[in-house]
Amino acid sequence: MKRLSVWLCIILYATTTYAANPVSVKFGNPSIFKQRVKAVIEFDYSNAKVGKKDLNTYLKDRGENFVRDWPQDKITAGNLFITQFNKKNKDGLQIVANTETATYKIIVHVQDLDMGNPASSFIPFSPAKSGGCIMSGIIEIMDINANNIVCSLSVNKVKGMKSVSETSRIGLMYYDLAKCVCDLIEDSPNEVIVPDEEVESKTEEVQDSSDELNVINVEEIESKTEEVKKSIPSKSKLTYPRFHMGIRAGGTSNTYAGDGFAFPYGGIAMDFRIAPIPLYIETGFYYMNKGFRINGSHSNNTAIMPLVSSYHFYLTKKMSIQPFMGGYVGYGLDAENIDAGIRVGCGWNFSRLYVNMGYDYGLIKYENYYFNNSNGTAFITIGFNWAGSR
Questions:
Q1: CA–CA distance, 350 with 379 (Å, rounded to integer)
Q2: Quick check: helix, strand or coil at residue 353?
């Protein structure tokens, strides 16, 4: 059994470390990217399909807002490719806005798009790329003076990280595409791969159609960098808070044998980040009345200390959704009883404002004149975080 575990670890490491690069060379010499030259870039969506629909039909089906916003959205998304590529390939080819200084043109032909879905962003501990945007297509590098394609790269299902926003998912896909292209550049030998007949026959067609492509203004893209940083909550852009501390107040509904009644609930909460990702351990000290209504109202003032793990999904730099799960221990001051159980729930945070809902499932039975059963408590709180540090 021990030997099997070792082999499973080796296989897992190998598959994650040496996963195939989704970008490969079709023909030409990718070492062009290593030269200290300048290039402009175009993103061509003229033949792009989303599922079985062409991109224009997809946007129209999504609504007028999608059609209206797409020209700016594709600029915002393309910025991630340019920023990441220029950063990783800083000693080689750089993407610029001025066509007069550029000797090459990079054309990204988008063929197939899977826009992904936002649902994965709300699932605790789901993989970083679960629900991310996927793209297949071709990247061509054209010598502007010679007016011919000198290198062509194939893109096979490059996938970006998850995000709630569709524009962000496309941008994060381009961010990952830039990394894949740069990895290919680093590993590429200084040799020319000869194109097959089919590629050669299409070279003139691509050259003739290249003038019709929509050129993205790189200067305008770079001016949007700060806006993109705020709108796309990627790990490389966010600095996650190290801890939070605040007050909470709300109410509970406690159940014994199906009965329920509302009681007050409040206390002090704190959490601490325990990993580079926004994973936190949360605890605190609370007053909770775990009372009940049977033949009148009966109080059971209880001191509660929860201990839960929480993952913070950042929708923006200041707003996050925080599902949590763990346990709690408590002591009933009126009934003089020990209480313990499982706690689950979800919180929402905006700046210093915090709201959450949850449920405590008691694991210890109460035995007295009124009932013989474990305790279940639903709660809702609103709070204010007065302390926190990044």
A1: 20
A2: strand
More confident position, 139 or 263:
139
Mean pLDDT of 340-368: 89
Beta bridge partners of 142: 105, 149
Do residues 45 and 110 make contact, with C-beta atoms less than 8 angstroms apart?
yes
Per-residue DSSP letter, 194? P
User: What φ, ψ does residue 120 adopt, rounded to 5°?
Assistant: -65, -25
Q: What is the model's pLDDT at position 252?
A: 85
Letter for the amino acid at 205?
Answer: E
Q: Which of 24, 28, 37 is nearest to 92 (CA)?
A: 37
Strand 38-44 and strand 104-114: pairing? parallel
- Using the predicted structure, report yes or no on whether residue 164 has a pLDDT greater than 90: no
DSSP element (H, E) containing 143: strand 134-143
Whether 133 and 176 have beta carbons less than 8 Å apart is answered as no
**pLDDT score of 235:** 43
> What is the band of 4 on the pLDDT scale with cuts at 50, 70, 90?
very low
Q: 243-389: which CATH number, 3.40.50.10800, 2.130.10.120, 3.40.50.800, 2.40.160.20?
A: 2.40.160.20
Gap between the terminal Cα atoms of the chain? 43
Q: Where are the domains of the chain?
A: 21-231, 243-389
Contacts of 361 (CB under 8 A, 6+ apart): 341, 342, 343, 344, 374, 376
CA atoms of 161 and 121, how far apart (whole Å): 10
Q: What is the pLDDT of residues 276-310, one digit of tens each?
A: 889 999 999 999 887 665 555 566 788 999 999 99
Could you tell me the pTM of the whole model? 0.50
